[in-house]
Amino acid sequence: MTNTNDAQRRARQATGAAPMGRHAAPARDAAPAHPARAGAPRAASQATGAMPPVPAQGGVRPQGAHGRPANATGTLPDLSASLPTLSVEDVQQQPMGAPVITFDHVTKVYPAQPNRPSLHDISVQIYAGEFVFLVGHSGSGKSTFIRLIIREIKPTDGKIYIADEDLTTMRNWRVPYLRRNIGCVFQDFKLLPNKTVFENVAFALEVIGKSRHVIKTQVPEVLRLVGLQDKLDKRPDQLSGGEQQRVSIARAIVNRPPLLVCDEPTGNLDPQTSRGIMDLLERINRTGTTVLVATHDREMVDNMRRRVIALDNGQLTRDQDRGVYGFDV
Ligand SMILES: Nc1ncnc2c1ncn2[C@@H]1O[C@H](COP(=O)(O)OP(=O)(O)OP(=O)(O)O)[C@@H](O)[C@H]1O
After folding, report:
1. Which residue's CA is the nearest one to ligand 1's atom 31?
2. Any coiled-coil ranges, and where (predicted)?
3. pLDDT tens string 262-303
4. Which of 136, 221, 262, 273 could disulfide-link 293, Cβ–Cβ 3.0 to 4.6 Å?
């Protein structure tokens, strides 16, 4: 059996990730055995996919620690350095790295709906290398959760951290740098209709100033990964829905972000195509990328048996390892 501390140290050495102590977050393995307790909190624009610079047995998780110390130096760490990535070996040995996403008593109230929080007092942590499903009825708060992660909106209360970065105090000019580290996939693909497959993916690199050499190398590589090496010159309207979603996934990961968030990525696709997309997301996860998927796809969640976080009416009602979709959502 792998020693937790050794594995964590190895993962940090491999990735340059910050030590756990900086996060004041418990390792999952170090958490005490805990009885199931429903409701226990645990702790380019869309056209670039990398976010908007431009246009075992199921068991409910124990509560995580909150309250994170300020950066000791008072300076903002380089985000790409602070977001941990794990090698496949590390992920297999020790899926629990440093927290990549921390919600600490987060509440979101939209001004247009002042009497009903869209998220209410959510505390949860998602760790490097995890694959997590976010489930819940329509209107339960899933998209709000994702919009908070990419700092499209700010919480009304509470703190949100991506790796070591406090999104609630982050200056606006830092937001594009945050988003370079978060790949995003949406239900409606958000591809540029007049650009080819290659150009759509290349665009995500162009807007962050990557050289032509990098673009010429990385774009074909990522399109091969998603199985579209033969469609480089097609426009979106010449592709099936599943192929369009593969382009949008390629665009989201071409810059190799350590975190991939997907809002209903299979919402417009038939079951077989959806399975292919989820297989792809699983493969991406196996390379060490942390993957968060908001979905209504019961069959997929039940088949894949990954961690499930359930929201109901803005409240976190379930956080389950190897979970199922459930009948409470
Ligand atoms: N911009 C907004 N202004 C006011 N209320 C909003 C806004 N966006 C969302 N809401 C409300 O917040 C709640 C949560 O919405 P959200 O879109 O996060 O839910 P969801 O779980 O993603 O739903 P769906 O599965 O239908 O996409 C809903 O009551 C919704 O009406």
Report:
1. 139
2. none
3. 999 999 899 999 999 999 999 999 999 999 999 999 999 999
4. 262
